[in-house]
C-alpha cells in the first residue's frame, strides 16, 4: 500500500479519536431505508435456506446424493444470513464496527470461509451432475454416500483452514506499510489483502473452481443436446430420467450463474485493490459485498421457482404438517413429475 494512501486513512481516523466512530453522514431516513432493505434480505436468506434444510432433511423422498450436496449448500447460506449478515448490516449502515478487533477477525474469517465453501459446493454439485448425465451407468457406483461425505468434508475443511489461517496470521497484510497503525486507530474493521494474497484468494478461491464449473457445465449441456436429439428413440423410463437430469442440471446451472454474477465483482475488486494503492472506496466495497450476500438470498428463490416439490414442502412446513407422524414419507411429486 502506498505511504500516502495509508497516511490519509490514518489521518481521517485520528480526526475523531482512536477507535471511536465518526458521526454518521447519512440521514435518519437513509439509515432506516437501508436497515429495512437489508433486514428483508436477511429474513429471506435465513428462512428460505432454513426451509431448504428442513425439506431435504425431513422428507425421505429427497434423500439423494445431489440433494445432500444442496442441503449442505443451504446450510452454508443459512449460516451466512444468520451469523454474518446482521453484523455486516450494522457496519454498512453506521460506517462503524462496534464489536472489537478479535470479533472482527472472527467475523471476516467466517465470511470468507462461507463464501469459498459455497463455490466448493457448487463444484461438487457440478461433478455430481456430470456423472449423472454424461456417465449415467457409472453414477450409482461413483457418487455414493461415502463419496458425498468426502466431498462435503473437503468443501468445509479447506475453506475453513484457509480463511482462519490467513486472517488470524495476518499474512494478508504483510508488506502493507502503516497497516498496523491503521488497525489500531480504526473503528471500521479494516481488512486489506496485499498483492500476493489478493491474487491467491482470487485464483484459488474463485477463478479456478469457477472455471472448473463452467467447463463441466459446458460439457453437460453439450451432452444434453445430444440426448435431446435421441430422446424420442429411447425407452420411456430412460427418456423420463434424462428429462429430469437435464432439468436438474439447468436449475443448478442457473444457481451457478447467479453465484458467479454476485461474487465475481467482489473477488475481482479484492484482486485489483492492492494494485490500485487501496484506493477503492469503502462504500463500493460494502456494495459489492452485499451483492455477494444476495446470492444466498437468491438460491431458495430459484429452487422455489423451478421445483414444485420445494413449494409443496414449504407449504407443508408452514402448515405444520411435518409434525404429523409418518408425514416424512409423503410423496412430493405429481404423477407427471415422476413419469
TrEMBL record:
SMART domains: 7TM_GPCR_Srsx. It holds the Pfam family 7tm_1. The chain crosses the membrane at residues 32-56, 68-90, 119-139, 151-173, 196-217, 252-272, 292-310. Signal peptide: none annotated. Residues 48-303 form the G-protein coupled receptors family 1 profile domain. GO terms for cellular component: plasma membrane. One of its GO terms (molecular function) is trace-amine receptor activity. It is found in: Cell membrane. Belongs to the G-protein coupled receptor 1 family. This is Trace amine-associated receptor 2. It comes from Camelus ferus (Wild bactrian camel). The lineage of its organism: Eukaryota, Metazoa, Chordata, Craniata, Vertebrata. The gene is TAAR2.
Amino acid at each position: 500500500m502506498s505511504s500516502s494512501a495509508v497516511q490519509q486513512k490514518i489521518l481521517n481516523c485520528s480526526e475523531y479519536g482512536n477507535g471511536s466512530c465518526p458521526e454518521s453522514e447519512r440521514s435518519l431516513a437513509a439509515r432506516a431505508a437501508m436497515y429495512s432493505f437489508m433486514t428483508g434480505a436477511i429474513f429471506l436468506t435465513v428462512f428460505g435456506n432454513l426451509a431448504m434444510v428442513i425439506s431435504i432433511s425431513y422428507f425421505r423422498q429427497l434423500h439423494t446424493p445431489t440433494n445432500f450436496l444442496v442441503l449442505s449448500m443451504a446450510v452454508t447460506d443459512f449460516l451466512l444470513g444468520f451469523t454474518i449478515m446482521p453484523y455486516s448490516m450494522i457496519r454498512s449502515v453506521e460506517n462503524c464496527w462496534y464489536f472489537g478487533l478479535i470479533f472482527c477477525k472472527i467475523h471476516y474469517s467466517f465470511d470468507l470461509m462461507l463464501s469459498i465453501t459455497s463455490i466448493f459446493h457448487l463444484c461438487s454439485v457440478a461433478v455430481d451432475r456430470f456423472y449423472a448425465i454424461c456417465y449415467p451407468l457409472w453414477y450409482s457406483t461413483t457418487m455414493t454416500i461415502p463419496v458425498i461425505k468426502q466431498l462435503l468434508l473437503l468443501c468445509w475443511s479447506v475453506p475453513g483452514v484457509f480463511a482462519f489461517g490467513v486472517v488470524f496470521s495476518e499474512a494478508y497484510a504483510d508488506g502493507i506499510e502503516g497497516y498496523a497503525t491503521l488497525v489500531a486507530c480504526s473503528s471500521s474493521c479494516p481488512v486489506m489483502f496485499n498483492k500476493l494474497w489478493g491474487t491467491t484468494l482470487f485464483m484459488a478461491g474463485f477463478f479456478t473452481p469457477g472455471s472448473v464449473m463452467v467447463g463441466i457445465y459446458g460439457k453437460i449441456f453439450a451432452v444434453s443436446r445430444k440426448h435431446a436429439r435421441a430422446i424420442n428413440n429411447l425407452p420411456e423410463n430412460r427418456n423420463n430420467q434424462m428429462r429430469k437430469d437435464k432439468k436438474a442440471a439447468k436449475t443448478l446451472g442457473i444457481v451457478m450463474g447467479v453465484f458467479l454474477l454476485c461474487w465475481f465483482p467482489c473477488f475481482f475488486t479484492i484482486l485489483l485493490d492492492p494494485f490500485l494503492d487501496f484506493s477503492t472506496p469503502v462504500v463500493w466495497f460494502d456494495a459489492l459485498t452485499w451483492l455477494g450476500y444476495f446470492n444466498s438470498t437468491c438460491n431458495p428463490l430459484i429452487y422455489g421457482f423451478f421445483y414444485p416439490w420445494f413449494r409443496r414442502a414449504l407449504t407443508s412446513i408452514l402448515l405444520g404438517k411435518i409434525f404429523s407422524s409418518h408425514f416424512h414419507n409423503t410423496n412430493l411429486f405429481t404423477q407427471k413429475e415422476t413419469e
